[in-house]
Amino acid sequence: MRIVSLFAGLLLTGYFTYGQNLVGFNSKEIQKYMKENRLDMNVEKVTNNRFKYLKYSNNSDSQTLLFFFTNDSICKSVRLICDQRIKAEKVKEFDSIYKKIGKNRWIENRNGKNYHIEIREEEWSSIVTIEPYK
Question: What is the CA radius of gyration of the chain?
Answer without folding.
Answer: 14
